[in-house]
Amino acid sequence: MNSRKSLDRVPSWVPATGHALRHVGVHFDAVRIGGFLGEDVAYRLMEFTDFHAGPIVREATGERNLHFLLPPESAAVHAWPAPARALSREGRSAAFVGIPALAGTTWPLDWRSRPTDEDPFVDPGLLYEMVTRAVR
Q1: CA gap 80, 128 in Å, rounded
Q2: 35-48 and 124-135 helices cross at what angle (nearest 10)?
Q3: Cis peptide before 81 (omega within 30 of 0)
Q4: For the whole prediction, is pTM greater than 0.85?
Q5: Cα-Cα-Cα-Cα dihedral of 32, 43, 55, 15, to 10°?
Q6: Of 82-91, 106-115, 121-130, the least confident
Q7: Is the pLDDT reported for residue 3 higher than 50?
Q8: Which region holds residue 51: left if phi is over 0, alpha if psi is between -120 and 50, else beta?
Q9: CA 47, CA 63: separation in Å to the nearest integer?
């Protein structure tokens, strides 16, 4: 493991155990992409960033959404192509994202890519480019 990319401090929005709902727009914005397309975008992003993409949360049940966590107030900057959905404080209703702990039992959520001190969020512009390429 590359120690330079280790998580020295756990972000305040990551629970110590299990998982917890966090209100989008407070600590982060998010882009939600479901199923195979979400996995494809996550892999493209991780491969491009040498597997240091920033925080991506994966759901193991239901629509199997992936949530790409962006800096606060950054999701609304782009017009995300369908089926990607921006979640921010700018939305018409309150949105919440389930956040797993970094260790222990967190089912049905897990980290596809964890936050680090160097990469506390997914880069919005890079994510937009990867989503655009994947939906073509």
Answers
A1: 7
A2: 130
A3: no
A4: yes
A5: 80
A6: 82-91
A7: no
A8: left
A9: 24
Mean pLDDT of all residues in 92-118: 93
Q: Which of 47, 44, 24 is nearest to 36 (CA)?
A: 44
- State which amino acid sits at residue 112: R
Amino acid at 36: F
- Per residue, the 3-state secondary structure of the chain, as one string, reads CCHHHCCCCCCCCCCCCCEEEEECCCCCEEEEECHHHHHHHHHHHHHHCCCCCCCEEEECCCCCCEEEEECCCCHHHCCCCCCCEEECCCCCCCCEEEEECCCCCCCCEEEEECCCCCCCCCCHHHHHHHHHHHHC
Find tokens 């700018």 and name the residue.
90
Question: And the tokens for 112?
Answer: 């596809």
Which pair of structure tokens corresponds to residue 5?
Answer: 């990319």
Q: How many CB atoms lie within 10 A of CB 82?
A: 6
Over the stretch 36-80, which tens digit does the pLDDT of each residue have?
A: 999 999 999 999 999 999 999 999 999 999 999 999 999 999 999
For residue 57, give the amino acid letter. V
